[in-house]
Every structure is written in structure tokens, then in C-alpha cells.
User: Fold this.
Amino acid sequence: MGRLKAGFGSFINNRWLVFVAAMWIQSCAGVGYLFGSISPVIKSSLGYNQRQLSKLGVAKDLGDSVGFLAGSLSEFLPLWAALLVGALQNLIGYGWVWLVVTGRAPVLPLWVMCILIFVGTNGETYFNTAALVSCVQNFPKSRGPVVGILKGFAGLGGAILTQIYYMIHSPDHANLIFMVAVGPAMVVVALMFFIRPVGGHRQVRPSDGSSFTIVYSVCLLLAAYLMGVMLVQDLLDVSHTITTIFTVIMIVLVLIPIVIPISLSFFMEPRGSLEEVLLPKPEEQEPGNSERDSHEVIFSEVEDEKPKEVDLLPAAERQKRIAQLQTKLAQAAAEGAVRVKRRRGPHRGEDFTLMQALIKADFWLMFVSLLLGSGSGLTVIDNLGQMSQSLGYDNTHIFVSMISIWNFLGRIGGGYFSEVVVRDYAYPRPVALAVAQFVMAIGHVFFAMGWPGAMHIGTLLIGLGYGAHWAIMPATASELFGLKKFGALYNFLTLGNPAGSLVFSGLIASHIYDREAEKQAHGHHNLIQNSGSILSGVLGVDESLKCQGSVCYFLTSLIMSGFCIVAVVLSMILVYRTKIVYAHLYGKSRT
Assistant:
């Protein structure tokens, strides 16, 4: 009995339990990716044109990215309270939209609908912030894999919810909005007390590598399974019973990772844990810790005292010269020498506040690169329904689900491969971001050309590249600007997402689409007039809202491809500027 009680206590405070619960919450934090599925029913029910629908899309993107309040609340509220606020926002925002679309509430002006979409989607920022803050603190030396897996489940949320919707088998597409409103709120309320820092840096075990392997395996299996299920449901007439079985198997796969904290807590003998080194907390820096403080200060002073030519030396020689300089500074401090005055503010790799980060060129390079790269990807996600319809596809849900799966794999892969880059080569993580943005540039070209199968290939490339952004960027921000204010820094950087969507979707894509639709409607109207049809006026009005053919998004896709190339250049500039930082952070682990 005593052992069972001890095992239960260990289970409740296990960092892997927090991680698994965060994964489940994140699987509900991607409801914004379902906008491509719910936008057609909103458009038809409320009679919106493409420009009005694009405004709702921008409001959704703003809600998904404006996380200042979530970041601020997470600093002084317990994380469960922040999660509860997010659940309430999600329920109220999308719940009211469902009432309006189904006629249970009066039709509201467009600006009010934008506010409701913003409020509902903004709940995701609380889910993201709480999950990332708790898990990055619990796994400080595995930031790439942890962030990639968590953000990956957020990207896969659209496919998971779509599969559950298929199981419900509702002929009314508006019920998908109801599920988006109620489902995430129920999951978050059930799990919110598990999401918290539990001193995870003191729970390092030799088996952690195997645990991550299990999680990665489940992730890949889940993505492959969902892709297979989506293709079967798209190509064959599947019965409701088979769909239910498919959905139950999917839920079992999502639940499998819980075996990790269960086995660690109940079936493995307690063993001495290692401890990952964290930056010292302010309360730990007491007068008695002068030796540790001296080391931290000396590390920063190296940047001030280091000759410029040291940065040009080979890696091994550079490390040797820096070690010699650290030794000299330590000896001088021990002998009572006057310390060299530090530059104002922290150095790269130390803890920054948001205001300190805002005056750094590296921070703005990250922001603009994210704006151009992820902004163009989000534009594709928001317009995927219309893009597939314009190329003659009737079932838009399959592409929404596919891009959700590729988005998921991009986040998993981006976190894994960027971690290989920094761990094995001590090379800056943003180089992986540059690769992802180049892949997206190619994907936009496929969308522009509209070749046979281009929708499938473009969806693959955009999904992978866009997803990689959200595994690489948070980990990079925590490495360059520290963990102390990570919530505020992360939520500011995510503003690049809606800013890019506002430019690409709200100002470029929608105007070009409507212009081409008007051209086609005008030509069709003239054709019918010439044939003497008395129905020309009615048909002209109907067709004025729709565009057919690759021309609808040709110019938009080429513009976005060009901006992705610009993002690649910015990311490579960031790589050049941060080589020394990553050599400091990860160079010692290779020696």
C-alpha cells in the first residue's frame, strides 16, 4: 500500500505526465486550422463574399497569435487558471458563431462576427502558452523535441477533430462549429490541473531517450494512420460503422503516451536522477553563492573583452582562446581586481525581458522572417477551401486534413532535425528555418501552376514548411533570449503570423481572387446575353462570387513564393550573427 501511494505521488508530479497532458491539450489547440472547413458554411449561411470571409480569416489569425494577455497572465496566475480563461473564450466565441450560423441567434454585423472569431480562437493562445511554458521548464535541455511535439499536436488537431466529426455523421456542416466550441473546452477543463512546472530538470533519467523514441514513434504512426484513413474515406464509400472503428483506433493512438509516466512511476525502481543545468533563478543568487555568480558574470564579460579576430578562428582554436580568457578573468576577480564594467543589458543566450529584446536586431530578424514565411503558409491554410474549389475539387475537407497532417510532421521533423543541427554540429538552429522556407517557396510555385496533382504536392510542401516554423522559432527564441520571460517573447513573435496573413490574405489574395471572379462573371454574363438568355442577370450575380481555374491564385502564389525567398535570406543572416552563441551553448557538449 505504501509503495502504491508513493508511486501515485511520483505519477502526479512526473514531468512526463505534464508533457503527455500538454500533448492532449495541444491536440485541441489547433481549431484555427479548421477555418478552411467551417468557412464555406459561414459564407453560404450568412451570404458573405470572399473579401468579407477574408476579414473573418484575419480576425481568426489575430486571435490565434495575439497572446499578450495569455503571456502576462501566465506570469502571475497559476497555469490552470490561464487554461480555464482560454477554455471559456473558446466556448463563448465559437459557440455564439454556431448560434448565429444555425439561426438560433440573430444575424450580427460583420465586425461583431470578427470579434467572436477573434475571442474564440484567442483561447488557443492560453493553451499554447501554458503547455510550452510548463514543458520547456520541465525539459530545459530538450527544447527542440518538446516544442516540436507539442506544436505538432496543435497542427494535427484539425485532422483529429475532422475525424471525430465524420464519426458523428452529421449532415449539417454547421455542427462542426459546435464541436469546435465545446470539444476543446471539455478537454482543457479535464486536464488543466496537470499542466505546471514540477521541477523536471531534477527528473532526468537514462531512459529519457527511449521515452522520446516512443513519443516520436506514436507521432509518426498517428500521422500515417490518419493519412491512410483520410485517403480511404475520400476514395471509397465507407460505412458509419467502419468510420467509428477508425476513430476509436485514432483515440487509442493518442492515449498511448500515457504509458510512459505510468511505467516510470509504478513499474520502475526509483533511481538517482541526474539534473539538467538551468540558469540560476534570482532567489538562488544569494551572497553565499558568490562563486557561481562570479562564473556567470565572467561568461558575459568574455564578450566584452574578447578580441574581434577570435570570432574568425576555427572552432577548436576559438574555444581554446575563450577558455584562456575566462581563466584570466577569474584569476583577476579572485585577486580583488576591479571588474570590467558589463555592457548595459543581457547578452545573447541570457535572460531578456521583452523590452530588452525589442531593441535587438536578432529579434527583429526572427520576427520579419516569421512574418514572411509563416504568414504565407497561413494564407494557404485559410484559403485552402477556395483554392481546391477553384481547381475543381468538391471535397475540400480532405485537403484541410492533409495539410493538418503535413503541418504536424513538419513540426515534429523541424524540432528533431534542428536539434540534430545544434547538438551534433553546434550550428545555429535558424538554418533549419531557412530550409523550411525554401521548401515553402517551391510549394507556392506548385499552387501557382495548378498542374495535375499540384494541390496534393503543394499541400505537402506548405504543410511541412509551415509546421517547421513553429518547432524551430520557439526553441530559437528561448536559446537567444532566455527562459525567464519566454511566454511574453513567444507571444510577441507569434504576431508575425497574423501580420503576414493580413498582408497576403486580407490585402493580396482576396483582392486578386475577387478581381478574377468579376472578370469571369462579366465574361459569362456577356456570353449569356449574346445567346439571349432571360436568366443572364441572375446567373451573373451567382457567378460573381466564384472564380474557377489556376488563375484565381496564380499571382498570389508567385508573390508569396518570392517573399519566402526573402525570408530565407533573413534567416541566413541570423545564422551568421548567432554562430558564436550556439558555439557557446552547444560546443562544450561535443568535446
In short: The chain has 24 helices and no strands. The radius of gyration is 26 Å.
